[in-house]
User: Fold these one by one.
Assistant:
Number 1:
Amino acid sequence: MGRWSNERLLELPRCEDRSTHKAQLILEELRSIAYLARPELFPLIVAKQIELTLTRGLAPTAPIAISSYGVLLAVLGDYAGSQRFGEVALALTERAEFRDARPQTQFQIIHFIRHWRHPLHEGLPELLESFHTALDNDDVEYAGFLAAVLIYHSFWAGRPLAEIDALAQVIIPEIRSQPVPSMLCRSTQQYCLNLMGRTDDPFLLAGESGYDERDVLPIARRENDVVALSAAAITKLGLHFWLGDVAGGIPHADELRRYMDGMRGTSKMQLYHLVNALSRIEVAPGKRSTARATSRAIALHRKWAALAPANYAAPYELLRGVSARANGDLVRAERHLDRCIALADEHQLPLIGGLGHEEAGALYAQTGRLSLSRVMVREAHEKWLGLGLAARVEKLETAHPWLGTQDLVRSGARTVDPIAMHRLTQTLFGAPTVEAMAEALLGTVAQTIGAAHVVLFTGQGERLVPRAVRFAGRVVMVDGESAAVRYDASIVQAAARTGSLMIAAPDGASREFSGGGNAQALVAIAVPVRMRGQTIGAVYAEHDWPGQAYGPEHEDALVAICAQAGAALWNLELESQLMRAGEERRSLVDAQSRFIPREILGILDIADISRVQRGHRVERRMTVLIADIRGYTALLEGMSVTEASELAMGFLGAVELPIITCNGLLQDVRGDEILAVFDGEPDDAVRAGLAMLRSLREHNRERVARGSEELRIGIGVNTGEVGLGLVGGVNRLALTVIGDAVNLASRVESATKRYGSNLLISERTYADLVDRTQFDIRRMERVLVVNRSQPVTIYEVFDEDPEPLREAKRGAQAAFSSR
């Protein structure tokens, strides 16, 4: 292909041969399958696609074939060649006749080719645009693959995890019909959720995203889906790395080597080599396997950094720095880490920058430069906070307890440090909960004035109650008025009442602070937290020992701290109120759904039950199932109201789950009779009826064991047009299903008594069954049912009859069919 210039490729004639078009389509399908399951066949298929393109001309799939060749070159390490053929393929998609091939072509170029030359973060807008273009072209499959790359690249480019989660929540519903792309998207989304701390087991990739590795991986192994397996392994390796369990990630790195074909050419390959080498250096720096992995990673990153410095120069310097430090060459390590930090900032790679700062902090501590070490560690801490990487934040704060607080008044200073105050403000507003805000707020107060005992109060006006206490260097949340917390209530109430800082002097007097003056000997201080002219909290602090002198700058700092805390506390309390209101609303909706199922509201196109109006209805073709308890009146004789209620509840409990499981909606319950509707195929209603009979048998065993009589039911099923809607008067509405189809279902159910059958269906239902062979069905007869002028053919479904009776009915079918 080297002798084929870009111009020559673009000037190839169009292929008009339909057989070649079909051959290219078949090869395209095979190529996709080969990449997923048989990577060794991928080069052969791509070669055949290119051969047909060069000899027969440009078929509609030509851009995909040419970009596939670019992918192959990227996999083989010819990154310059891959860029060239990617550009040719993309140029072709600008032509109208190749527009349908654009989404798949863009996916291949962005996922395999572009990142070897262009910055990852600059490609995010293009990815999002390509995703929407693919959706507009109804190419949902490759919209899904583009979405998977977008979400993954967003993480590696350093987008905050909360933003990635929000992006995933918007994108994934658009591609839910595509199982593979949807799985890849949910995997990365769950990865981010784990790192944010939103899961019970941070090392288990399962949770609110809907992804569960316990379901996905067995299927992927059975089908040898190397893409799914490599995605899972790289994700697990990353989880252990970012969570600080680098030793736990090494087995996943070893496993990942078996699935390398599933990620060759992608940016995930770089992540594997980087994290694998860093993990091994930390766990076993002297091992030969570590030396091999590190040498390989450095060599590859050197090559990649020359091609795409914006993506790979900073990771290369990080590897060199960590390796040099492990080998004891601290001077060289410092030089490489300085470059890593500078390059990460220049190219907007906060993940690499955070790692560089962490490693530099450890290096400076090792060489006795503790002040520099603290600066580096705090910079890493702020990067993790900005990204929302809660697991890394917790790891650093555990290792360095002084993190999360700010000394607002530096030693020898007379004023508040504006940089420290700005950082505190960011921390307070970034706190996801009151607990996190209290940790930062009380820690800063303690550090600023040397207080040993600090209390946060919340409430309104003078009705303040303790919410959190800091003592012995740790913060504990407390339960309001019932908590046994030590504090001077008089100055807390005075601060809340006056809206000013109040102090308690050694002589026991309480007075308002007026600012200025000399250092004072203070026992305790109370500062109100205010918002919009209202007191919404207070901070109370006691010093390490009575009589300690503090200057007005410390009191100024406390006032400034509480001023910044006001808006943050207000927002968190408001969010808490909104969450409680949301929970109450969800509780009401859940309660409402037990009376009127959400599915029925969906059919009625009603999003909010409060907006329903009398007379609202829809008409559609549905299948109606009616079941009735035989001899119900006789069963009730001699029963108390409680016993009758237990009978009805037991019957409903036995038949409700089979209906729901078979996609039915239980619409009405009238003591001995239930009515259910099925919006899908009639087969669901028949399956539900059979499942109801099985469930009732189990229920009857329990009744007989208690000495009660067995329940017997008849079930009638009919399909037709029904009206589903709201009827009633001014003060009461009811949801009902009406129409001739409902009446006929009731008549069919009544006919079960005549024939001694458990389940009968109408001729309409029989005619609409998608697969009759799955049921034992026999034609009964054509009969006149009550209140109908035209005869109706009735069919019996006898799958749940005893086996001898079923055999007899099968044998007699010919006689029934001839009627």
Number 2:
Amino acid sequence: MEGRCVRAISRPPSGVRCGGRSSLRFAFVVWLLSAVACSRAAPAPEPVEPPSNATAWWHNGVCYEVFVRSFQDSDGDGIGDLPGLTARLDYINDGNPQSKTSLGANCIWLMPIDEAMSYHGYDVVDYYHVDPHYGNGYDFRRLVGEAHKRGIHVIVGFVPNHTGSQNPWFQTALRDTSSSYRGWYRWSKTLPPQKGPWGQEAWHKSPRRDEYYYGVFWHEMPDLNYDNSAVRSEMQKVLRYWVNEMHADGFRFDAISYLVEDDSVLEHSRGTHEVLREMGNTVRNADPRSFTVGEMTDESPGVMETYYPDQLDSYFAFAVAKGAMHAAETGDARGFVIAVAHANQKFPAGRWSPFLTNHDQPRVMTVLGDEGKARVAASAMLMLPGMPFVYYGEEIGMVGQKPDEMIRTPMQWSSAANGGFTGGKPWEPLQTDWQTKNVAAQDQDPGSLLNHYRRLIRLRNAHPALGDGALEMVATNDQGGTTAAWIRTSPREKVLIVVNFGDRAVEHVRLGLSAEKRGEVRPLYEDPIGGCASVRLLAGGMAELGRVAAHGLCVLGVQND
């Protein structure tokens, strides 16, 4: 979230669309009905650590990030909605493991769909109701039901750090200094000299009186005060509601490192870890099959390590993403190798989530500018352990850069009017290349980026070692530093992966296999564009690939002697 909101500190985001006075009155009624329950702290849930066995669904498969507003509009108002997403589920996964027309993802992550002030949903007004632009509770439950029929789990965006300024909790706290909701936020009679965690002004002047409130991102997003047990109780109640009543399969937690300020410690505080532990336990107690993944953008393995073992299930591997993108852009694999090795060493197996870019960052194709580079970035990411995340449109090479709205433009389905996204006027114009770069244009082309993603996800789904298998980095003799190699091992199989990030083929790549990994090596996957030439075993347990194509991927099965 940091990338999204640093810009917003100086000015409001463009395109703000509020739910209107009627929706705020409705949210206020909800608040009145729940005031008594919200004012009391619930008992702390019993600790439940994340599943350690590799059979948990989130140890396998791929998650597809969707911005509902931009995916598919079903009613012609120009705004994507839940019925539209439901109608497009077969594109994500049609339930047939052998299908060549769907991505095969077993998870979708929805960016926030709560009623909110702005188009992006990160300034929540009502945590218990779907934004009416997207539909209603019935539409969400129907989406979940249809997704489950296809083997897709649905996780939703959860914004725990702050509310929107129009949230009834904050509005009550502004108006009435004696209200119990005053303690749900942080206040100061004078402007504190302390700045925010990246040097910004985080204390904002109240519009009602001579006082200030704390909001780490900007004045329209006041931070919740997790030192207050009632806040912790309420947010745990929100989590239970979405699991028990709405049947969500889990959550993506936004901006987790800023939850609790311990004096001068504004990030990664002990209090933050305690709150995450409580929340993670709450979700796992509500449904042991659930999945929680956190956004913590610090790339230091030492810092990220403090969020294990018993808080959220997984966290986005920002350092690995940066390493993969840099390797694809420059052809230098060394940073990627180091980042993966650190993650593999520091974090529990299967509990760090690879990705390339997301809704806060310039899109993959905008950064790389070349389909070959985009292919090899995807190849590397999708062969790593954990639950990889793919941002919608990444698989067809959609472009987009700041401002944020331009990273979240409508999905490009076809060359029909408005890219097949809507029959009305799109909430945001499509990218200029939509008529030539779309799903329909790539659907039947075996060499397309879309079919590259489909093949690799299908490969991953078919081989347990690529889902939950352990990872071991493999040394190569490549003096140019463009190749990376690793082996994935599960009880029944071993799979060797070699990736060439460079724009030239590499000849005679030798791989040093440890004694327990030696054996017959055979091709397991043939890439139609960037594959490998002959493979053979040498003395001393070495394997040699005759040639690895530019931006190429080799996937090899290893059979023990």
